[in-house]
Amino acid sequence: MSNLIPVRRFAVLGGALLIVVAVSVSVSADSFRLLKPTRSDSLSYSDQYIAISFQMRPGSVWGIGYEGIGFTITNLSTQAISVDWDRTSMTLPSGQTSNVIREGTRFMLSGTSTPPTTIPPGGKLSSSVIPSGNVYYSDGWHVRTMGITSGSQFGLYLALDGVGISSTYSFIFEAVEVKPPDLGAPILAILLILALVGGLLALAFALAI
Is the distance from CB of 152 to CB of 69 less than 8 angstroms? Predict the structure, then answer.
């Protein structure tokens, strides 16, 4: 039994290190600001109809880069407001304009009509969008990142309809600081996963004999 103690310690240590690496990869020190309609370092905006706050959506591969924009919108008016996804678009740092795919939409439906979402008075909607032009198929569906670097500017043009409001809100963002992808942490995570698997296999083998 004493021979199993080092193996178990190895497995526990590997698991702990893997958690630390995973947390470090997911934490981003990048910073953004909203430039228009009004400047906001907290990425938020409000008027008599809506209050909205934004978050950048990390890439789906190790959280590297950014593939879209998330937001939470509150209806401050006394009437229902609808988000028209078909008239909503994004402008990428390259200057290219693209229609959007709403969070939860199957990628194979890219380019088809998406029904509007109604927000009742006082209600909230949390969602995110990605540029439909960045979705592609190659042995499965994938999403290219938006190519955001320090100093990049990009936009979200959110189409809203309702009593007293029927327009496209133009939100322009700037990447204040975006650090280059650090591939060291993902590689280290892969090595730790292999080490952890090896430790668990060794433990299982030791228990079997």
Answer: no
Q: What angle do CA 125, 62, 114 make, to 5 degrees?
A: 35
Answer yes or no: do 75 and 146 share one domain. Answer: yes
- Residue 84 sits in the same domain as residue 64: yes
Instruction: Report how far Cα 92 is from the mean position of its chain's Cα atoms.
Output: 15
DSSP-derived secondary structure letter, 48: S
Question: Can you tell me the distance from the alpha carbon of 108 to that of 55, in angstroms, rounded to the nearest whole number?
Answer: 25
Residues 204, 118 within the same domain? no
Q: Are strands 81-83 and 117-119 parallel, antiparallel or unpaired?
A: antiparallel
CA distance 116 to 138: 30
Q: Same domain, yes or no, for 92 and 66? A: yes
pLDDT in tens, 148-197: 999 999 999 999 998 667 788 999 999 998 887 655 555 555 666 776 77
Range of the domain at 82: 30-178
Q: At 129, is the pLDDT very low, low, confident or very high (cuts 50, 70, 90)? A: very high
Structural domains of the chain, count: 2
